[in-house]
Every structure is written in structure tokens, then in C-alpha cells.
Design a protein that fits this description.
The protein is of the alpha/beta class. The protein contains 14 helices and 21 strands. Strands 3-2-1-7-19 form a five-stranded parallel beta sheet, with helices on one face. Strands 8-17-9-10-13 form a five-stranded parallel beta sheet, with helices on one face.
Amino acid sequence: MTRRSASPRVAIIGCGLGGIATAVKLKKKGLTRFTVFEQSAGPGGTWWDNRYPGCEVDIASHAYSFSFLTYDWTRTHARQPELQAYAEHVLDRFDLRRHCRFGVRVESATWDEENSRYDLLLPGGRIERFDVVISCLGLLNQPRYPDWPGLDDFEGPKFHTARWPADQDLTGKRVAVVGTGSTATQIVPAIAEQVEKLYVFQRQPGWILPKGERDFTPRERALYRLPLAQKLRRLRLFYQFRQMFKGYDLHGERQQQNLRACRAYIKSTIHDPDLRAALTPDYPWGCKRPVLATGFYPALNRPNVSLVPHAVTRITPKGIIDTTGTEHEIDVLVMATGFRATKYLASLEVRGTGGVSVHDTWKDDPRAFLGITVPGYPNFFMLYGPNTNGGFSIIAQLERQAEVAARMVARMRRKRLRVVDTRPGAAERWVNWVDAQLHRHASAMEANCTNYYHAESGRNVTQWPKPHGEYYLLTKALPFLGFTGRR
């Protein structure tokens, strides 16, 4: 058997912000033998896929960005084109394009035990071999399509928000938006003036507060171009989230403060008392993902916009029937129905030791050490894995995960390790600890409401139970206790 090169060959799957962070962290450690595979024609991940009207991030720009790069943001909350431009900028700033292969989908990664490497299956049956695989597929990359009876028979345009047609004209149309989560609350005010009639279907209301989005003034932009000023603003934003996070405690005062603020916002923006009642949830703040949306409630006051506070039961060739049996005739159907958030690695078949699929290992209950590695899948890392969503800015979480992967690859090079795997005991202790913390510190997430957090097993498999600072410290302290390596 030939001796492995001192520097492992690394495959990064996905060129969203997670894949870009991973490439930067590898390069900062002098690791340049990596290839970034991206099935889309360009970088950006979710910000490449999602191009619906009104698309923008709901986390402040200076927090929803990388800590290692000062950037001249134009708005408090960046819109999709600016986020896409940011991804392009980071690629160019760190000379990463030469590592990228766009328009190439990785279909599977299979561990070759004899040679201690992965065989990656690419389109056309082509095989390429890598020592390490880092999945950066993201959490919200597989749209969830509803199984409504009659959906295939609908005669008009129908599409998921993540697949919005570039040439779709809604002028003068009767449009239905099904869903009232973060995406829908951006789309509704963006199209309300354009359409003839807009139906907004709400299965369950959510707690909403205004986002406060606006353009930065020239003076603010000049100030935040200074690295120190941008870092201080970033720290302040993370501190503010720590205070808001206390609202997840069902019995804490912050929970009541958040509820009062949300109810006051409904009262101040919605004119019709019946509409106010329909928009007011009956569950704790934080049970569903809290929504920040400034224009959604005002848009519902428009005469051409109707909230339908009922679930969809079936689709007809010309409309939608809700749970009351009422049919609403429409021309265009927009499905803001979310993503398959609990189906980690849904688009990638990963086979580890003994040829076992990671999906068979998980059995619809995804779990991973630090949300990054799974015992029995050597030299395999994932970003945005189980129980890593949250902590305020997912970009900060992705940076920590990318750092763990980069440190372990650097360790493989330094100690000439062929294999790095996860200790089963460490993984089990980690999952048990996360479950206990969710119950203790984020109990609102476990309350009785509809959300995307829970797998078929009933476990909350998506959310991180604390602010980001704790994850930062744990990813610095635990990796070398949880991993084992061999030459």
C-alpha cells in the first residue's frame, strides 16, 4: 500500500456560505489540496436558490457574515442580490474559484476501507477519490412539497418559493401563498400591490415582531468600514440575542416580555379585530421559529389581501379548498411550505465502515458529535448538521464547524494520520447533553406546536439549545476528546 501524501486531499460538497467558510479555514491552515463541488451554476447556496420577491435575510448583516472579513454592507438586513454578491466577493478575496467545480453534483460518497479514502460518484458514473469529505449541503436545501390531493391537476403555474421562476409575472393575477413563515412574510408585502387578489393561507399563526430593516446612511457605512467598529457592532448584536434567548424559558420574565411585545405589535398594525384574533397564536413565544417581518401585517390590511386561517385540504384545477370546504379560485399557486429540515444529507448517499448508509445508521433520528461527525464514518465531516441550527447567526455556527474540520485535517497532515473517526461514547454523551439542554434552557421549543424541529422519532434534531458563545467554546475544547486517529 502506498504511503499517503502529507496533505490529505479534501472534497467539499456545496459552495454555499458553509462551503466557502470551510475552504477559507482550510486555506488559512495551508491546506490547498481541496475541491469544492457545487451542483448549481454559481456560489451562494440558499442565496443562489431563493430568488423570490422580497427575499432578504432576517439576521442583521454584520452578524450574518464571516468574522474574518470586514464588508461594506449597504443595509441593516441584506437582500438576496447583496448576499449573492457577498458570496462571490469572499470567493475572489481568498482566491477560491480555482478550487470550485460548478454544475457538478456529488451523488454519493463511499468509504474504501482498504485504502482509507472515499469514492465520490459524480454524474455519468465518474468516480473521484478523496481522503476527506466535508459536506456543506445546508439545512434548508431540500424543498418540502405538500401532498395535497389534486395538486398535479392544478391548471395554473405552481411552484415552491425556492424554485421561483425568473420570468413569473403576477400582475393582475389571483395568487395564493400557502404558509406564513419567514419566507411568506417577505413575499406577501412584496407582491400585494402587483396582484389583483392575494389569498394567504395560514395553518397556524406565528409570533411576529418588526425587523427594522433599512439602508445604512453614508455615515454609518463609513463607520462600519472600520474593522474595529464592525467587530464592536457584531459583538453588540450577539449580546442582544443572548438577552432575547432568555425568552425561550417558559417561566421566565423575558418570555412574558416577548409575548407582550408581539401582541402590542398586532394591535398597533392590524385594524380588524377578527383578523387580530386569527393572527394571535395560543402557544409560547419560541415554540415556532419567531418571525421578524415589518411589512407583513400592514399588507394584510389591504383590501385585495385576504388571510385564510385554515389549512389546505385539496387542490382543484382552478383553486384551493380549505378545511371549511370553501373553494378559493386562483391563477397562481405559491407554496411557502418550508424545507425537509430534519432530512439531513437527503441529497447525498454517504456509506461508511462496512458500507452502511448514514441514513440506516440514523433511522430517522439524526445525531452527530458536535453536530459534525458520526461514529463509523471516518474522515467525514458535515456543516449545519443535527442540532446546530440557531445560536443567533448560522454563519457563526458554520465558522465553528469549518474550524473543527480544518483543525482535524491539519492534524492528519501533521501526524500523518490515515483515519480520523468519532468515539461512540463521546457522541452518545453529546446527544444526551444536547437533549437535556433543550429541555432545560429552550423549553419553548419543546412545547405543543407545529414546527420543523422534530424528526419522526420525536426528538428535536435541528436546534442548538444555547446562544453561540457556548458552541464556540465547546468546539474549541471537545474535538480532541471525541476523535480518535490512526496511521
